[in-house]
Please model this.
Amino acid sequence: MAFDLDEKLADGRVGFFTDTSICIGCKACEVACKEWNAVPDDGMTFTGMSYDNTAGLGADTWRHVAFVEQRQPLGHQEPGVGDMDFRWLMASDVCKHCTHAACLDVCPTGSLFRTEYGTVVVQEDVCNGCGYCVPACPFGVIGRRETTGVAAKCTMCYDRLGAGEEPACAKTCPTDSIQFGDLDELRERAERRLEQLRAAGAGSARLYGHDPDDGVGGTGAFFLLLDEPEVYGLPPDPVVTTRDLPSMWRHVGVAALALLAGVAASAWRRQS
Amino acid sequence: MSQTDVCLDGSAGLRGEREATPGSAGRRLERLPVPRADVESYYGRPVLNEPTWQAPDIAGYLFLGGLAGASSTLAAAAELTGRPRLARACKAGAVCALGGSLYALIHDLGRPERFVNMLRVFKVTSPMSVGTWILSGYGPQAGVAAATGLTGMFPGLGRAATIGAGLAGPALATYTAALICDTAVPVWHEGHREMPFLFAGSAAAAAGGLGMLAAPVSEAGPARRAALLGAAVECVAAARMERRLGPLAEPLKRSRLLRAGEALSLVGAVAGLIAGRRAGRGRLMAMAAGAALLAGSACTRFGIFRAGVESANDPKYTVQPQRRRLAKAKAERDLR
Amino acid sequence: MDLTWPLLRQLTGEDRTGRGQAVKSAATEGVRARTAGADRVVKSICPYCAVGCGQDVYVRDERVVQIEGDPDSPISRGRLCPKGAATLQLTTGSGRQRQALHRPSGAADWQPIDLATAMDMVADRIIATRRETWEQERDGRRAARTMGIASLGGATLDNEENYLIKKLLTSLGVVQIENQARVCHSSTVVGLGTSFGRGGATTFMQDLQHSDCVVIQGSNFAEAHPVGFQWVMEAKARGAVVIHVDPRFTRTSALADLHVPIRAGSDVAFLGAIINHVLENDLYFHEYVVNYTNAATILNEDYRDAEDGDGVFSGFDAAGHTYDDESWQYEGMRAEPAAGDRDSDYQRRSGRVPPGRTEITGSAGIPMDGTPRRDETLRDPRCVMQILRRHFARYTPEMVEQVCGVPRRLFEEVCRHLTENSGPDKTSEFVYAVGWTQHSDGSQFVRAASILQLLLGNIGRPGGGIQALRGHASIQGSSDIPTLFNLLPGYIPMPHAHEHERMRDFLQADAPHGGFWANMPAYLVSLLKVWWGDAAQPDNDFRFDHLPRLTGSHSTYDTVMSQLAGECKGYILLGENPAVGSANARMQRLGMAKLDWLVVRDLNLIESATWWKDGPEIETGELATADIGTEVFFLPAATHTEKSGSFTNTNRWLQWHHQAVEPAGDARSDLWFMYHLGRIIREKLAGSQDQKDAPVLELTWDYPVEGATAEPSAEAVLAEINGWDAQGRPLSGYAELADDGSTACGCWIYCGVYAGGVNQAARRKPWTEQSWIAAEWAWAWPANRRILYNRASARPDGSPWSERKQLVWWDEPAQRWTGHDVPDVEVGKSPAYRPPPDARGVAALSGIDPFIMQADGKGWLFAPAGVVDGPLPTHYEPQDSPVANPLYGHQRNPARKLYPHEDNRYHPSGDDPGASVFPYVVTTYRLTEHFTAGGMSRFTPYLSELQPEMFCEVSPGLAAERGLVHGDWATIITARNAIEARVMVTDRMPSLRLDGRVLHQIGLPFHFGPNGLARGDAANELASISLDPNSHIQEVKALSADIRPGRRPRGPALRELVRSYQRRAGIGEHTGTEA
Ligand SMILES: Nc1nc2c(c(=O)[nH]1)N[C@H]1C(S)=C(S)[C@@H](COP(=O)(O)OP(=O)(O)OC[C@H]3O[C@@H](n4cnc5c(=O)[nH]c(N)nc54)[C@H](O)[C@@H]3O)O[C@H]1N2
Ligand SMILES: Nc1nc2c(c(=O)[nH]1)N[C@H]1C(S)=C(S)[C@@H](COP(=O)(O)OP(=O)(O)OC[C@H]3O[C@@H](n4cnc5c(=O)[nH]c(N)nc54)[C@H](O)[C@@H]3O)O[C@H]1N2
Ligand code: SF4
Ligand code: SF4
Ligand code: SF4
Ligand code: SF4
Ligand code: SF4
Ligand SMILES: [Mo]
Model:
């Protein structure tokens, strides 16, 4: 629940279940997203961060594949890399389409809105580039594009959903690591998958964002991770900032009254 | 969403490759477990995206908005208590600060020409939206108050506007705290209880400073008292915030701007009081004190702004508090 | 349009908080998917790699607005990898060059040129150079050719385009026609062809899902064929074990159960040890091996194994570095190399097999005569099984540790998984690609896997086989309809000078009475008939003499040498980028700088088109633009969306892509280019009485053209490839071909692709509506068969080996073969059939023989002919190696092919003095994000940003040893050149322990070059030209080098650095050239 003004999410909410245990890090999702949405390239910089050169989500990267090299075991996998354990984790990150979306809450223009599919979308023609959504997002997803001055992020392919097509990134994913569909059904599938992986020895597997009771009310795009969220650049316990907004308003109110009172008191005695 | 149903006999057997489990058939050599390096982030990169807000624009806006709001309140108080020159100075100051803050706000937009889109909606969930409406309520009144005050025309209207602006002023001066606190920026967000007071204090100090600077010492009593009160509140709020934030307060504690802001405010407020005692001869000193107060308030706002950005850019300020929170919740669960 | 103020809607409607419908703008209301608004959707195929993913091309207002995966495709099921997903940008992006350009000799820059003028000028250049360099005879033998012109490229092109290239250039007497198949997978054709009879992958990707154990070795499946990799994941989901044997821990390893790091270039030792393990422990599939392989066949007593010759087999000619295969023969009969009596005698006298000849096994096996003697108890000391045991006896787990750096326990795990998952009820599959092929004994790497898979009984069975993952979209097609110097369409060998004066001699030599080549006269005559039409008559040998003749190797690397020597003067690049993609890239450019003229047809301004003004040699001062006489034409090519045609994917599937839009500007298809070039040349030569002009003037060259650009009809070309009978009716299969001139057919193995006048390659029945074989999707050669040698999926008696692994079987009541796939055996041939003694051709094969292309019907564990560097794989070190061969005194493959030249120096190796100057092993490879030499990815922003710069991957150990800093620069040096790269220090590049010594490897992606958006030095600057003698493939997968921190020197100092290394290592003319 964001604020005490509950947002009504329509039935049939759709979402993503990104199962990182079968991601091959091909970045097709990144490219397919850019092709479909005509997102410009994000600069040609060699980062040295394993095979990741796009570094993170932002206005010009709506899907981002993280690469993590670790001296840790992965299930019963035999990495054969010297005397140590080793695993190479890959995970495709995206806007979470939060149940309680801070970006949406704080947007002063109504540019960001909740769609009929339960997703959160920027209306490019409305956004005035105030940038408020950028620091509001607890996941570091949304950004403001330099060239156009407006905010940009994953739309969950709003236009494609309208045409009955699945999002470009999910469609292209060679291994089905990105699964698109009815959110409730995906959540069930994810639970089953988690059990399967744990049974196979991948004790570090966990779901992220699937829980409707978490700080953002659960996410529309949730993940199966093989390590702690922060390893992939995700916050471990994100909270929608507007959860505290009532308290903020209360404090603001008291402070405003205090200011009024203080100034009044300062001028209490009439000038002689 | 594809599933495979191709089987050796060509018949359906629904099993997708999404069920593949890497490592499930291996047999690892026994190895000594490697102690885990403390990973708290992805290549040290921030979890949050850096605010696009530019310091001169938005920290400037915080300062100017506060100044305008508190000045209007001070102006109203001055007018109602028979201090016309202080009232005039404050009205003029408020309207200038308002102009500056509007400029800063619009200048920071990615699409300034779409500023009016702020008026498409009213969203209580968005301090910026609320602030816009506050501004739209406050702005015209402050304008009318200043115009009538300076020209002396329409005194009735002027008085009403002055009172209106004076009442709206505190809202303008403090809502900006909600504006920045209602983000995921750790220092800002976690400081949301003290921030409004800090901002209110800082605004009062600035308005007081403005009054001291622009009004004769004889009329500036309220300004001096407001400044002193404001500076004190500001310092107390800052101290409380730093204590409550614990390790997260590092960026605040490190901030030279904040220290300078506090020092300037306190020195300005005290100097203002002394100047007030010295009647006529205190004018120069009062002006210096006023300037110090203004500078102090500006430093505080820039300091808060910078500390926030710093906390957003270092993943540990995002991850550690959340980890602590999770640990605490777990401990509580375990207790039950 | 909705004009109401959202605030009003907010106050009056449901959405009080202003976060939903109330704030929706009119523009948002109007949002429509651009796919939904398309005027039409055109079916296409991804133009990048050989997986052959289906694409839907959305067209609106005659512009391509979106390209995405075709959900109907049984191969890809709608998915695309990053390259496939970037196809829209590739085809419509601003990077593409659409203006024809001309650089006159010595000019400093390009000038735009009118396309028609350019075509005319190119035609003039060809005519002039041809006239000038015409060679009617060479060494007294009729050659009727020109060595002055060469062409390169074809794997990115359509089959129809390759066909026209081969047809026109051959008629012009050009023999130096080559494409990527040479540098990519030519050793596959040799390795698989000699073992099984056909040179293509034995299975298809979707069938991987039925595998119980997938061994990926020499391939980085997940990175280089990402969409195909879904079928490995599918197998995994069904419980399969996935093993990756690779020097590096890659994205494939990340998804595997077991990753085995191996020293690059040591796979024969590894596979040999598995073979030994299988034999020693009696783990082979007994019934399969006895019946379906040549294990029981007895060899000649003259045979001496490499084990007895310290690494050399009997028959070696030390002077010529070549073998005579006489002593490798079966007892009592001869396995003919691909030439008849007279030529064999000639060869034996001269001591060499015509280079490249072995590749004719691409489609059909080595012809043989007689009946071999067999011992089905496998005990005879001279039977293949016993020879095999002895040959591999020293390939032990200890040896694997010592040679490959693979710990014993890991090796044993691989053996365990592989053997536990092979047998009647289980199958294992090998997947490889160029990690195996690109070695100086690459063919033998493939042979080793073939032997192992035969022993385990995994060939021809579901979930089994050897999956050769090929490279470009149509590299299989450009081998089948070869733009290769030594082949005619359908793997018919090109005739050699003097060897075959008449067609009869040629046919006699190459198409003996036994074995599958028995029908070659029909294939050849039909080809000549379709090329020369009415001019080809029985009394003129069907114009057999219109074919130019070979006199040795004319591979792409020979062409470079001939350019440097000033013999080859004109060069046509048809979608290939040798200045980046070919070994010793600097030599490629130096060769081009000696040309009179160069034509580059490409999508982008690749390095091979611009080296004369901004190449590395301009920077070092070795070349000066003003002094370079080469006249250069750049002619922009049309993309796959702008033309129709067929690609043949890695599994031999011909898939048609339909034209979606007209090409813009001067961009034209290669079909257009070849057709109009031919037309113009023919017009210019019209009326010529010159004998050498007759082949081109008599050529059938009358394709219908359509549209504003006069584009020739690709479908008409496909129809010609398919062929027709005397009445002009399309043929429906190669069984219909005749040798009397009554049929005409452009490529016999493709005969049937236009059966019934229907473009079978364009068939697109969705996979959801058919079995996994997907027989009604596209068309596969041969005869739409998807799993080759599938007779072996049944027992000798014709029943399936097991319930789980049934594929085709003998239906006794119906007296025919049946099953899921098209049986790879004559459908009516009973398992009980035994050939009468005088049987010929396929009738000579018994009812149990599954390898119907082999003359003895058996899978060849031992290759008595066809592989010129030995009948059995033997471990040799790469040409440049820091490791001494622990198995044999012969360090390197004694028969490898070298090109000593001052710009192509080799390293001292092993324990030789100077070898320690180059102490590390470099291996080169691909990244998912880029494509080959970069022409299709480095100019594409979406792909470039993902891997923007050249880098090298090194282990933490090597970084410490050499002071390399992550993210900084390093310089890598060989005796050829030095390059710089950003340093990536990673555990994924494990250091190996062999024989107590730590060996570091350096990983280099080979995609980068100076042009485009993602730049860097090309890895191929470092590689030498040293080739596999069978296939002439270059060794770029394993070479020694040095690395040091910092950037490389600029200007002349770069050459000085290289020379200083040469001096330090004592490198001279003869270094590394010993046998
Ligand atoms: N993304 C992408 N896909 C491509 C291409 C591309 O450029 N980019 N190119 C296409 C083409 S043309 C081709 S031919 C295919 C090639 O496909 P692959 O052969 O899979 O490609 P490579 O990366 O060259 O080599 C494969 C692996 O071989 C390993 N290797 C190197 N030397 C050895 C060795 O001696 N032994 C063993 N066991 N392994 C070794 C390398 O580390 C590498 O991981 O890919 C095709 N697909
Ligand atoms: N060191 C090292 N070197 C290698 C390899 C390695 O693994 N390591 N791999 C080798 C292998 S397997 C290969 S296949 C080669 C590949 O090397 P190249 O074939 O030289 O590389 P590509 O970049 O694929 O070149 C194909 C060109 O065709 C152009 N093109 C695409 N479509 C068309 C078309 O329709 N018409 C025309 N005219 N042009 C078109 C593209 O823009 C591109 O420039 O590199 C080899 N070189
Ligand atoms: S497309 Fe799929 S497999 Fe490839 S990086 Fe994205 S999520 Fe991973
Ligand atoms: S992840 Fe961030 S941008 Fe996406 S919906 Fe949630 S708050 Fe908004
Ligand atoms: S930048 Fe645009 S989308 Fe983001 S909060 Fe401001 S108006 Fe809304
Ligand atoms: S859903 Fe659409 S917009 Fe979002 S990441 Fe995927 S492709 Fe991009
Ligand atoms: S490059 Fe290969 S795997 Fe990737 S989409 Fe194209 S055909 Fe498929
Ligand atoms: Mo290739």
Observations:
- Residues C 47, 156-157, 180, 183-184, 434, 438, 471-472, 574-578, 581, 601-604, 606, 637, 670, 924-925, 931-936, 1006, 1019-1020, 1023, 1036 surround MGD (ligand 2) (CB under 6 Å).
